[in-house]
Design brief:
globular, 11 helices, single chain, TIM Barrel, alpha/beta
């Protein structure tokens, strides 16, 4: 079994004064200030994170470019792989984000609106740089393509875009399969239903994606503690577990999560 990764994530927006700040919310809404992005990057680098994710959470919705000056300052503080997402729509955006110090780019809206961007990014910069983020929500109607049984009900997962603000009608599992075939190096699976709840990852969603692709999958949204990371690795087959609020507010440390996993024979980097 390959080493499982524990990845902290910061959701970055501009505060009322136009300065970058980290926010934490529930279901992609009700955002609460959590800290300074550069300071948090420095702290997580020292805390033993395997990778670090920086998401500009309003760039796509507002139609603006990613805050690359902040990305550059964050990149100066981390010596682990850095993934940056938000507002990436073109091959040039990918190039500029990598030039600012990112090791990988996370793309959601830009790839959904123009899937060829995945092919172009992989061809130009290598698949290892291209992370496709799937921001999915549960639907209980008959408009989907692939269904799962969840608590006795038939569910499909819909891709959303613009930071979860807009539905697309696209089946998330089918989109994950397409992104994989187009050359994505990794898939970042976010559950809008689980986001910020600390009730555990959306295991049915994560498992469905893991079973559909050969690309490594990062599980995101809903982590409340080490046991949730263990569950998404064992029950869903995820390759990495991402968390935010449990780390931001000191409820659990990265070391604590890794030790919990190691004690249960899960391969991690300590």
């Amino acid at each position: 079994m390959l080493t499982k990764r524990i990845i902290p994530c910061i959701d970055v927006d501009l505060d009322d004064d136009g300065d970058p700040a980290v926010y934490t919310g529930v279901h992609f809404e009700d955002l609460t200030y959590s800290g300074d992005p550069v300071e948090m990057a420095r702290a997580y680098n020292a805390a033993g994170a395997d990778e670090f994710v920086f998401l500009d959470i309003t760039a796509s919705a507002e139609g603006r470019a990613t805050m690359l000056d902040v990305v550059s300052r964050v990149a100066d503080e981390v010596f682990i792989p850095l993934t940056v997402g938000g507002g990436i729509r073109t091959r040039e955006d990918i190039k500029e984000t990598l030039r600012a110090g990112a090791d990988k780019v996370s793309i959601t809206t830009g790839a959904l609106e123009r899937p060829a961007l995945v092919d172009e990014g992989a061809a130009a910069f290598g698949s290892q740089c291209i992370v496709i983020s799937v921001d999915a929500r549960r639907r209980y109607d008959e408009a989907g393509e692939q269904y799962e049984r969840v608590d006795g009900e038939s569910v499909w997962f819909e891709c959303t875009k613009k930071g979860g603000r807009e539905g697309t009608g696209i089946d998330a599992v089918e989109w994950a399969r397409e992104a994989d075939s187009r050359g994505a190096g990794e898939l970042f699976v976010n559950s809008i239903d689980a986001d910020g709840t600390k009730d555990g990852y959306d295991v049915p969603l994560t498992r469905a994606v893991c079973e559909a692709v050969s690309t490594p999958v990062i599980a995101s949204s809903g982590c409340g503690g080490p046991e949730d990371a263990h569950e998404v690795f064992t029950a869903a087959g995820a390759d990495a577990a991402l968390a935010a609020s449990i780390f931001h507010f000191g409820e659990h440390s990265i070391r604590e999560v890794k030790e919990y996993l190691a004690e249960r024979d899960m391969p991690v980097r300590l």
